[in-house]
Design brief:
Length: 182
């Protein structure tokens, strides 16, 4: 699998925090940040901070609430990118943005499915905690990210659904859910 060139740096974290404030409000996000600072301190990687942030959202709002909130966060990240760039560039943005941000190698897409390839969370964060693919809300950010782009790129797509993980090739597969006309 290819190399991830980007880093989950302070700019990426600040963007995620800002967009989460739009979803939950300033006070809730400040509470989450205070809690994770107490738990993990300042000497952590960006991946650890993002995971702790998602973990605290899941602790506060429950598993289903965490999934919904973080999925919406992924949609919001995609919307910001789609607003900044012309539609002709969306396909390339979908494929390469998670690499630039430091989250995964790439997203592959065809007419009916998409794959997150070589995610930074599965092997080093989820697996050691005995969590499978999409069993933590951190995974749902990628789901929302893909969903927002695919809805903009594919006629008749109303959402996406995780199907399976190809462990050998380190890919999570999502299928497109289409409306009756799509």
């Amino acid at each position: 699998m290819g190399e991830i060139k980007g880093q989950i740096n302070q700019e990426v974290i600040d963007t995620l925090v800002s967009l989460t404030k739009n979803i939950l409000g300033d006070k809730a996000v400040e509470q989450i940040l205070n809690t994770i600072c107490e738990k993990i301190g300042n000497q952590c990687s960006g991946r650890d901070i993002v995971f702790a942030f998602a973990d605290e959202i899941q602790n506060m709002y429950g598993q289903k609430g965490g999934y919904a909130i973080v999925r919406q966060l992924g949609r919001e990240v995609a919307k910001v990118l789609m607003e900044k760039y012309p539609k002709e560039e969306w396909e390339d943005l979908l494929e390469k943005s998670l690499n630039t941000f430091g989250f995964a190698y790439k997203i592959e897409r065809n007419k009916n499915e998409a794959y997150i390839c070589n995610c930074v969370f599965y092997e080093d964060v989820l697996k050691p905690r005995n969590l499978g693919p999409i069993q933590h809300c951190v995974c749902w950010c990628g789901c929302g990210f893909i969903e927002a782009f695919v809805k903009g790129l594919e006629e008749g797509v109303k959402g996406i659904q995780w199907v399976e993980r190809d462990y050998e090739n380190q890919k999570c597969k999502f299928i497109f859910l289409r409306d009756k006309n799509g």
